[in-house]
Amino acid sequence: MMSDWVIQTDHLTRFFGARCAVDQVKLNVPRGSVFALLGRNGSGKTTLIRMLLGMLEPTRGSATLLGEDCRLLSPATRRRVGYVAENHPLIDWMRVDQIEDYQRSFYPSWNGKLFATILDHFELHPQAQAGQISRGQRAGLSLALVLAPEPELLIMDDPSMGLDPVARRTLLEAMILVTRGAGRTILLSSHVLDDVERVADHVAIIDRSVLRVSAPVELFRSRVKRWQLRFAGEAPPSPVIAGLLESRRDGRDLRLTIANPSGDIEQAIAALNPESMEETPLSLEDAVVAYLGRRGELVSLLQSTRERQGVA
Amino acid sequence: MAFDFNISPGNSTPIFRQIVDQVRLAVATGKLSTGEGLPSVRALAEKLLVNPNTIARAYAELSRDGFLEGQPGRGVFVARPRQVYTKAERLRRVAPLIEAVVNESLSLGFSESEIIEALRQRLASFRRNP
């Protein structure tokens, strides 16, 4: 029987010298999902992906890809996985058609029609030399190379980085296209949250090497809440509340963003004695930023600049 | 003309909720009429460029609430209007919205008759362009 998980990790850990890049990550990626891995630059996303693909040894812990140990992936399993690496590395001295021939030789099946269609969408000529094409076209070519074998699992490391809006749109279309195949899974890391909101049904958030969230998108969104409070006088300092992600204080206003608020959260907030309090809805980006920012009481860059210049 | 969805990511309203709200409003205002067909989950996902699971969830909720019905092998259609909720439940659902409208209007300094007139005009606009 096929497993429900295409990726499973347990206590997956990687050190580089004394620095821990991935810290005891337990991740389950369900078959058929579009799973977005979110986190700031340097948070450990690429290291995690490279371990999943067997390109990097874990220091501790375990990981499986399509049911196989990531350290011992067989060629047959590797062929079922497509990988779009960060920055779209290509063999720059080859022509597009030569790269296609080369790549095709590794796979038992190759959808040449799909390959040609994607090239066409990115206005790529088969005779063009890989070293001469634009950034968007590089993304298009690596996408075509990875999609043509019709992989069961597609892993993309920040595929939209540096793409113009048109190329980004085509990338989105390609991801939706992949979901046409039953049970095909995409794991992508990205910073473009509008696109993530369109295509992803699961999100995971990695913050400073630690996996903080892994959930269906809607569940994640429903668990992060924000209250806007206004006080008669100066707002009090940030209260101690379980799950407080962020608190912003500006004069009489206090804004609290809280993860997994408990049932009595409203009473806890009301105990601060605000003049008014209102729950305000968050966008996906608001919720993610609240997770990834610094903990505790925050001052925005704009606010601190204002105070420094004495315009507050 | 076919009903057109308009979704915007980055909004505080999730995409799945935007789709549900738009269908409900279109049915309520007659822009979508009983028996009219909607795109399949796959077709709408590819048109709006959103995950098909998101569309499927929106359609499932709309079917559960009696706005849409799936006909096996044929597609998704606007259902004959029926009340799946009791009057009491419907009142319970609309109460917070009425409270918000009244509170906000009063705090902005509108009189009772001005609020009622504004509601009347809004309702009339639906009668004018069904």
Q: Mind explaining what this structure looks like?
A:
The complex is a heterodimer of chains A (312) and B (130). With 312 residues, chain A is of the alpha/beta class. Chain A is built from eleven helices and 16 strands. Chain A has a six-stranded mixed beta sheet, sandwiched between helices. In chain A, strands 1, 2, 3, 5 and 6 form a five-stranded antiparallel beta sheet that branches. In chain A, a hairpin with a 2-residue loop joins strand 1 (5-16) and strand 2. In chain A, helix 4 (112-121) runs antiparallel to helix 5 (135-147) and helix 5 (135-147) packs parallel to helix 6. Chain A is elongated and about 70 Å long. Chain B folds into two domains: 15-78, Orthogonal Bundle (Arc Repressor Mutant, subunit A), CATH 1.10.10.10; 87-128. Chain B has a three-stranded antiparallel beta sheet with strand order 1-3-2. The model of chain B has no long low-confidence stretch (mean pLDDT 89). Classes of the chains: A alpha/beta (312), B mainly alpha (130). Chains A and B meet through helix 6, helix 7, helix 8 and helix 10 of A and helix 2 and helix 3 of B.
Class from helix and strand fractions of chain B:
mainly alpha
Q: How many helical elements of chain A?
A: 11
Tally of individual helices of chain B: 5
What is the count of distinct domains of chain A?
2
| First-last Cα distance of chain A | 64 Å
CATH architecture of the largest domain in chain A: 3-Layer(aba) Sandwich
Structural class of chain A: alpha/beta
| Low-pLDDT windows of residues of chain B | none
CATH architectural group of the largest domain in chain B: Orthogonal Bundle
> CATH topology of the largest domain in chain A, anyone?
Rossmann fold
The low-pLDDT segments of chain A are: none
Strand sequence of the main sheet of chain B, in spatial order? 1-3-2
Question: What is the CATH H-level superfamily of the largest domain in chain A?
Answer: P-loop containing nucleotide triphosphate hydrolases
Largest interface: A-B, 25 and 19 residues
Oligomer: heterodimer
- Largest β-sheet summary of chain A: 6 strands, mixed
Strand % of chain A is 25-35%
Give the CATH H-level superfamily of the largest domain in chain B. Answer: Winged helix-like DNA-binding domain superfamily/Winged helix DNA-binding domain
